[in-house]
């Protein structure tokens, strides 16, 4: 009887081990995904709060001098015809609102050609990873981080424009230059990367750049080991079916949110070497904690007003799963309850299966057999 029992245990172990490994891997990624939609660290500020502080002079008094250089960055990569650098008419109109309302600012439009020249000159080690991204929008995402780290300034997607200045005699974006760094918070849990700003060589963007240079989000194309690693990087996105997930988690807004959270965790631990030997003391923020700013830009009705920016046609790379995750962000608790119910159901089924397997190898002894043995 013992060999039968051992065989059953061995059979269950063979079946259960890979299932448990897959469940563990899947669960860790699901937990990381859920965390993306919760509140992020940092200091949340609305556009109206920045505007009021600028108008009454408290922003200038507390900050002494602007920290972000007056440079506006935008990126236009024509994916269908790289040689054609003519902007669509609506994006061109959006762009002109920023140049019109910020005449003292330098404007830089980065195309395929100028982007490659910039990376080849300043970050040649990143160029192979940059070219290996499976989706063109990932190159646009990665490039903006390198531009902010290297040059500083304000980056805007082409579907964003600028509103007129709130203060006569100043440019419309001047008030936003008094912070060493700020990132966009769309109010749906996940941080956004559509409008970003920083002084040059900020350690947060240094950390982002360091991760990208080390291959975050790239598809390895070298040895067999690297190819297998590339496969496992993409299997959970169903090889492009979950396109929004792959882009956002690989190099996009979910990636930025993860680095943002990690950066602030290191601040709480009191570590000064946040990235490559640079220190945070006295350069990140005048707050003792060193926390960074989240500029609130929720576009839903009834949310805080937009004072500096406008929103036009966008989402040129979005797929069906973009809508899905926007709905998750708006109904996070419902999603969490459904996910918890599914996990509980899987646990219950696994327990029933285990009990059924434990019963194998045993045979109920009939009373007639017992009588035969007693004679």
From TrEMBL:
Q: Where in the cell is it found?
A: Membrane
Q: What keywords appear on the UniProt entry? A: Membrane, Transferase, Transmembrane, Transmembrane helix
- Quick one: signal sequence residues? none
The similarity annotation says: Belongs to the glycosyltransferase 32 family.
GO molecular function annotations of the record: transferase activity
Name of this chain's protein: Nucleotide-diphospho-sugar transferase
Question: InterPro entries, per this entry?
Answer: Glycosyltransferase_domain (IPR051706), GlycoTrfase_DXD_sugar-bd_CS (IPR007577), Nucleotide-diphossugar_trans (IPR029044)
Membrane-crossing segments per the record: 12-38, 332-350
Name any one Pfam family assigned in the record: Gly_transf_sug
Q: Which Gene3D superfamilies match?
A: 3.90.550.20
Species this chain originates from? Neurospora intermedia
